[in-house]
Write a structure and sequence with these properties.
By secondary structure, this protein is α/β, with parallel strands linked by helices. Helix content is about 35%, strand content about 30%. It is globular. It binds adenosine-5'-diphosphate (ADP) and magnesium ion (MG). The site of adenosine-5'-diphosphate has 12 residues, from β1, β2 and α1. This is ABC transporter ATP-binding protein.
Length: about 230
């Protein structure tokens, strides 16, 4: 479970400061699905980075299962991230010189998983995103939708409890967007993930049971009846 209290993030740009997050209180239950929506520059990515322990707040606390991520050493934080949190980004962030299989396996290296098991688990993860025949392909030989599927397999191969996605369909056309969303929603349900997704797309925001609207660093929550 996530518990955020009074989270602020202040960036400095020359002599100006920007309050990307201006006092965010937010609870996300285990297995919950939350969409974060808002205008460009509203603080969506900053909030997701706080949830992922990719950056630290200026003040306030970001607790994951009772542990304040902001208080951890860099080494401990890296460990929490590699074990518990899967990331998917708009730009896929695959390594261009590695095959689909090898890209997925990279997520298991920091966990000390042996080579043979890495191979089996990566193959299973690629199957689970519908890429059974693309193991040996390089990112450049795949469509955007296929590359995003590889990135999703890489995020989930370590069996994290949390999946964080920042505009995961932002680079895809509409039909691909719907395919990837259906895949993500299916994986969320199947694995009981805590799933937080950033989007500026209202059509996607409407699909979520719980919506956090963020504007000028302030969050407003809307719950929908199931
Ligand atoms: N590393 C940074 N340095 C300075 N300003 C930043 C940095 N990251 C984000 N910002 C600023 O913080 C605000 C929120 O940014 P961001 O979280 O990326 O918004 P969103 O994802 O909603 O578009 C913006 O004004 C942005 O310019
Ligand atoms: Mg952003």
């Amino acid at each position: 479970m996530y518990q955020l209290s009074g989270v602020t993030k202040r960036y400095r740009r020359g002599k100006d400061t920007v309050d990307a997050l201006a006092g965010v209180d937010l609870t996300i239950e285990d297995g919950g699905r939350l969409v974060i929506q808002g205008p460009t520059g509203g603080g969506k990515s900053t909030l997701l980075q706080m949830l992922g322990g990719l950056d630290r707040p200026t003040s306030g606390s970001v607790e994951l299962d009772g542990v304040d991520l902001a208080s951890l050493s860099e080494a401990r934080l890296t460990k929490v991230r590699s074990e518990n949190i899967g990331f998917v980004f708009q730009s896929f962030n695959l390594i261009p010189t590695l095959t689909a299989q090898e890209n997925v396996e990279t997520a298991l290296v920091p966990l000390g998983v042996k080579a043979a098991e890495r191979r089996t688990r990566a193959a299973e993860a690629l199957e689970s995103v519908g890429l059974g025949e693309r193991f040996g392909h390089l990112p450049g030989e795949m469509s955007g939708g296929q590359q995003q599927r590889v990135a999703i397999a890489r995020a989930l191969v370590k069996r994290p409890k949390v999946l964080l996605a920042d505009e995961p369909t932002g680079n895809l056309d509409e039909s691909m967007r719907d395919e990837i969303m259906t895949l993500l929603e299916g994986l969320w349900e199947e694995h009981g993930l805590t799933f937080v997704m950033v989007t500026h797309d209202s059509a996607l925001a409407r699909r979520a049971p719980r919506l956090a609207t963020i504007e000028k660093g302030k969050v407003k929550i809307t719950e929908r009846a199931a």
